[in-house]
Amino acid sequence: MSPSTDRGTVEQFLRAVPDFPEPGIRFWDLTPVLADAEGLAATTRLLSEPVADAAVDVVVGIEARGFLLGAAVAQALGLGIVPVRKQGKLPAVAASRSYDLEYGSATLELPAGVLAAGTRALLVDDVLATGGTAAAASELVESCGAHVAALSVVLELPALSGRARLGDRPLHAVLER
Ligand code: AMP
């Protein structure tokens, strides 16, 4: 499928949920996209194809939708996946970072012993909003001496200027809203 056909497939299933999880927030819900076989295949192609030629050693999936997307991307690229998890979920932690969300705040943790120095990581998540999550995950990866080769997200919300939080780390967004 061409990228424009694949983008049309993703847009067809993408769902905007008003006032979730708080009044005034428009939540972009990928659940119907991922529940459809062609939606999942199109999303996986769109997230992985732009980085297929880049030197990437491992995928890092950001909790929780980044796990679903990241595992599919890792399979497509022939790579493994490392989860960046919310605080308290990992039995062995290499590093933690706290950050602000579009709504609230959170702490992310990187598992110990799975990301060697010099590894080139592709970070995957569903939505880039304020960029706090992606920036914190990037800092975790870099705190181990690994590199952020690129970040791939399905949806970027440019009005929230999240891209600016990422500095010169390459960001690939499938769609903007
Ligand atoms: P941020 O740190 O503000 O870039 O927020 C990104 C994280 O929060 C991602 O992991 C998203 O899953 C989630 N998120 C933030 N805003 C939204 C939104 N409007 N719709 C869906 N997910 C969102």
Automatic annotation (TrEMBL):
Q: Principal localization?
A: cytoplasm
Sorted alphabetically, which keywords does the UniProt record give? Cytoplasm, Glycosyltransferase, Purine salvage, Transferase
Q: Which domain of life does the UniProt lineage start with?
A: Bacteria
One GO molecular function term of this record is:
adenine binding
Q: Which reaction does it catalyse?
A: AMP + diphosphate = 5-phospho-alpha-D-ribose 1-diphosphate + adenine
What Pfam families does the entry give? Answer: Pribosyltran (PF00156)
Biological process (GO) annotations? adenine salvage; AMP salvage; purine ribonucleoside salvage
| Gene3D superfamilies to which the protein is assigned, alphabetical | 3.40.50.2020
Quaternary context: Homodimer.
Family per similarity comment = Belongs to the purine/pyrimidine phosphoribosyltransferase family.
Q: What is this protein called?
A: Adenine phosphoribosyltransferase
| Species assigned in the record | Actinomycetospora corticicola
